[in-house]
Design a protein that fits this description.
- With about 230 residues, the chain is of the alpha/beta class.
- The chain has eight helices and eleven strands.
- The protein folds into two domains: about 120 residues, Response regulator (Rossmann fold); about 100 residues, Winged helix-like DNA-binding domain superfamily/Winged helix DNA-binding domain (Arc Repressor Mutant, subunit A, Orthogonal Bundle), CATH 1.10.10.10.
- About 40% of the residues lie in helices and about 20% in strands.
- Helix 3 links the parallel strand 3 and strand 4.
- Helix 2 runs parallel beside helix 3 and helix 6 packs across helix 8.
């Protein structure tokens, strides 16, 4: 089984496909894409994913039909399916779930919510790949319980600072630009000024050094921020 969880994005709109792929890759997933239902089934047959993010209204075969076929086949029944739809009526949601979808997300959605839904399904189908404890130097971050310690001292982080630290700890040494951090932590669909990144990085620094210890975050002039 591959180290990185495999997510298939089935969406006929290229821009949405690219945004989802970018954010899923940032989460550490290996991503495949398909623009229609028939190609989606071919991809699944060749390279079985752990999760399928599946738009309802796609060409050739609808998302509902793709979902039905995958859930009826014993070989693909255990793949988690997150159905995307602009249809917000309860009857549509019920139909999607009754066809076998494991989750149902109404468009428009926030990217932060979508990534949380994907993580939730991955925890179910591949529990060993999600919710791991990240470590850097004397900092430990438990993604499952949202607990962070430094040298044994418990640190109290807000949700934004927690996501920032998670991002830095997943790839120590990598320099993240402010725009990349905005995309990753706040989501592409939310407008936030880049100065907000500086404010939250400042707060994170304060929390990380509250009990002593050097500041592990590095400011790279003209580029962004990095851990270590």
């Amino acid at each position: 089984m591959p180290t990185h969880p495999h997510v298939l994005v089935v969406e006929d709109e290229l821009a949405i496909r690219e945004v989802l792929s970018y954010n899923l890759e940032a989460e550490g997933c290996r991503v495949s894409t398909a623009p229609d239902g028939e190609e989606a089934l071919l991809v699944v047959a060749e390279d079985r994913p752990d999760v399928v993010v599946l738009d309802w209204m796609i060409p050739r075969l609808t998302g509902i039909e793709v979902c039905r076929r995958l859930k009826q086949d014993p070989a693909t029944r255990d793949i988690a399916i997150i159905m995307l739809s602009a249809r917000s009526e309860e009857v549509d949601r019920v139909r999607g779930l009754e066809t076998g979808a494991d989750d149902y997300v109404v468009k428009p959605y926030s990217m932060t919510e979508m990534m949380a839904r994907v993580r939730s399904q991955l925890r179910r189908v591949r529990p060993t790949t999600v919710g791991q404890v990240l470590a850097y130097d004397d900092i430990l971050l438990d993604a499952e319980t949202h607990r962070v310690t430094r040298d044994g001292d418990m640190l109290k982080l807000g949700p934004t600072e927690f996501r920032l630290l998670s991002t830095f700890m997943e790839k120590p040494g990598r320099v993240w630009s402010r725009d990349q951090l905005l995309d990753r932590v706040w989501g592409r669909d939310i407008y936030v000024d880049t100065r907000t990144v500086d404010v939250h990085v400042g707060r994170l620094r304060k929390i990380l050094t509250a009990h002593g210890g050097a500041d592990p975050l590095r400011t790279v002039r003209g580029a962004g921020y990095a851990l270590g």
